[in-house]
Inverse folding.
């Protein structure tokens, strides 16, 4: 997808600090962290947002949660706890229109909305 920041990151055109990579999934540190640990996990396939997921993407989403757990384990915050946020669309506050899972960890997170 042209002009997509995250597709450019996947292609190596924009540098990032990588946390995890396989054929389908990439994880890297957020440029503007909202917590001591703020990692973004993205599918390499360009999907705009949750609302644009197809039935065939459901396996991929499951794998993303597997990667999230792997990262939590490796970075040592699995037991302490963490939060996963996916903003979707305009009202959801999504700024980058390439599906991404925020992992926030490293402090007691406040402002629970549910
Ligand atoms: P959204 O608001 O779309 O859910 O979150 C987009 C996230 O992407 C933000 O937390 C923002 O800091 C992060 N971000 C935007 N551009 C870049 C970039 O070029 N590199 C990295 N590492 N993160 C980015
Ligand atoms: Zn993209």
């Amino acid at each position: 997808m042209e002009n997509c920041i995250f597709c450019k990151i996947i292609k190596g055109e924009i540098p990032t600090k990588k946390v995890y990579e396989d054929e389908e999934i990439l994880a890297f540190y957020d440029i503007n962290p909202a917590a001591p640990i703020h990692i973004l996990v993205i599918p390499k396939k360009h999907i705009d947002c949750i609302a644009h997921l197809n039935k065939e993407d459901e396996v991929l989403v499951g794998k993303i949660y597997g990667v999230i757990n792997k990262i939590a384990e490796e970075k040592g915050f699995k037991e302490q706890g963490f939060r996963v946020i996916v903003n979707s669309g305009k009202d959801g506050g999504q700024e980058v229109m390439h599906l991404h899972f925020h992992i926030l960890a490293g402090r007691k997170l406040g402002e629970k909305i549910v």
Notes: Helices lie at 5-10, 58-75. The mean pLDDT is 96. The radius of gyration is 14 Å.
